[in-house]
Amino acid sequence: MKKNLASNTRSSFKAKIAKYLLEDEVIMNWSVLNKSILILILGSLVHIFWIFWKSFVLLSPNLWNFVDLALLQLQLKLDILFFCLLILMILPCVFWSKKKWAQQWLPYLSIGILVLSLCRNGAMIGVLSPATMVSYVSLVTVGLVLFNRKIVYFSLIPVTLFLILSNYLSLEGHISYAPLFHLNTSPYQNKFWVSSMLYFIAPILMICLILFEILLSQWRHREQLIQHLSQIDPLTNILNRRSIKACLEKLEHRPIKSYALVLIDLDHFKQINDQYGHNTGDETLIQVSEALSKIIRDQDVVGRFGGEEFILILHQSSLAQAKIIAERCRQAIQALHLLSSVGDSIQVTASFGVAFSSTEIDPQKLLSQADKALYEAKACGRNQVKCYPENLGEAQLY
């Protein structure tokens, strides 16, 4: 509802902006060490899945013929070791979170340990296996979203070189491909290998999907708030000139049955700024915008057209209705109780120019007519409402 861009909206909207653009609840706004802690926790969860799988295989004698048992035992110990390292890395990220050197180097160390463990496991199950590729793509994507590119490329380049070299050596027969498994045929013909790949991929995809869903939701909401912020005047929190022009363009392309434009100019506003200061002038503009917003109907639009000038777009309104609303607004502005910083009472008045349209009149032409009516109101002594009737000349203003 357009009308709600007044006093209550100002406080609630600014609260939303603060929450989603400034506060730490938004993952994108976390410190680099908090993001590192998140990555360490996610990496630890992945290691738990690996530890569980290897423990299950070791406890299932019927599966021993599918794996290199000695290598599996060694890898299980290494998984436990890396899991402990990842958990322990959380402690310095928490305790030294305010240290500049920690903010600079701990992210590199944290991601480096995680990447090293992923490369090791990838070499054991096959560098071109689905699980390794999914881990590689997920790590790169998550890293680029959360961290500075330098941190990501610090790990990405060595990992890429490692995968290329390992694949080359396995093709040349210098090392075995997926040494953890006994693969006498194509890996994809080995049901145990395929089911193991699915098991390794599932937690990575699940974690990444949840993380990206959170990030995308926060990103979309933040974009909506930023877009909303670009449409309103930062001082009065009513629509700005750009938004008003967009509203007029919509009226031009999708004309409604009838509407009216009301231009409002505060009388002798420069004197308020000069005599009482710009802070008092700003407060005057804020209170005027609130007064206008309280009077117009829900379907109508109020905006700041520039400086001390405001505009109303009154949808589905006749000229008589528009004049009544303008008169109410004039009285509300005149009734404002403003005090200067030294306690002086400040009288505020405004002049109004009203123009009525149907589908045959261009909005820009109507705006020009409202401006002529406003000029007439000023010429006749200010603090009054003048109308420019449809299809009538300037001499017939009343």
TrEMBL record:
The chain crosses the membrane at residues 37-60, 80-98, 129-147, 152-171, 191-216. GO terms for molecular function: diguanylate cyclase activity. Its cofactor is Mg(2+). Keywords: Membrane, Transmembrane, Transmembrane helix. InterPro entries: Diguanylate_Cyclase (IPR050469), GGDEF_dom (IPR000160), Nucleotide_cyclase (IPR029787), Rev_trsase/Diguanyl_cyclase (IPR043128). Its EC number is 2.7.7.65. This is diguanylate cyclase.
